[in-house]
Design brief:
12 helices; 8 strands; binds phosphoenolpyruvate; alpha/beta; 41% helix
Length: 247
């Protein structure tokens, strides 16, 4: 039985002092030892948020990292920096990074390998645009993103990672995929992992749905056999996140 993982993606929101205030507000609301709870926060918030989460059930994640160890990469953050700061998870390949910052699946594959090498758990995002969905190429596109993202990664490592299926048209739009649409793609991702690796790896890997998850739709989405929790944007900044965690 896979343990559910519910992660908040704060995106570019909350200054360090606002972040600590939000953690204090959410702490009592997100208590649920039956699921993994992760707050993925802006880089500058990581240190104070890790401190504020000490002694709670909340793990801290980053929203991005670079694939080099150190050196002349102005503005980037290395995996070792994240680990040293107390980070456990890292979102890689969010569609906003793919779109606005032109990250490719090949870049994300390099980041996946580095994150794993440093003991971080990557949450690798994939998802189709509305145009791709309308063209009927959703599953082919997602399979391609997953195949490139996991190139050269061993089964034993892949099994510990998390994939977030996030249809781009559902992110921040209030338009959630239907449970059938979300389950169809999450099932296809699991089948793709079984093809790349084996059934045991496919059974172990956790697959989240993301895209306008809220307190009203979380329980139905998370009840699907191939949906192991959610990656939550907007609603992770509000008390609603507590309801989602305790779906
Ligand atoms: C996200 O940014 O990963 C996301 C799913 O956002 P929202 O929940 O706001 O759609």
């Amino acid at each position: 039985m896979r343990r559910k993982i519910i992660a908040g993606n704060w995106k570019m929101n909350k200054t360090p002092s606002e972040a600590v205030k939000l953690v204090e507000e959410l702490k009592p609301l997100v208590k649920n030892d039956a699921v993994d709870v992760v707050f993925c926060v802006p880089a500058i918030d990581i240190v104070p948020v890790v401190k504020a989460c000490e002694g709670t059930n909340i793990e801290v994640g980053a929203e991005n990292m670079y694939f080099e160890e150190s050196g002349a990469y102005t503005g980037e953050i290395s995996p070792a920096m994240l680990v040293d700061a107390g980070v456990k998870y890292v979102i890689l390949g969010h569609s906003e990074r793919r779109d606005y910052f032109k990250e490719t699946s090949e870049d994300i594959n390099k980041k996946m390998k580095k994150a794993i090498e440093h003991g971080l758990v990557p949450i690798m995002c994939c998802g189709e645009s509305l145009e791709q969905r309308e063209q009927g190429i959703t599953l082919d596109w997602i399979r391609q993103q997953v195949k490139v993202g996991y190139q050269g990664i061993a089964a034993s490592d892949a099994a510990k990672t998390v994939i977030a299926y996030e249809p781009i048209w559902a992110i921040g739009t209030g338009k959630t995929a239907t449970t059938e649409q979300a389950e169809e793609v999450c099932r296809a991702i699991r089948q793709c992992i079984a093809e790349i690796y084996d059934e045991a790896t496919a059974e172990a890997i956790r697959i989240q749905y993301g895209g306008s998850v809220n307190a009203g739709n979380a329980s139905e989405l998370f009840a699907q056999p191939d949906i192991d929790g959610g990656l939550v944007g907007g609603a992770s900044l509000k008390a609603d996140f507590g309801k989602i965690v305790n779906y």
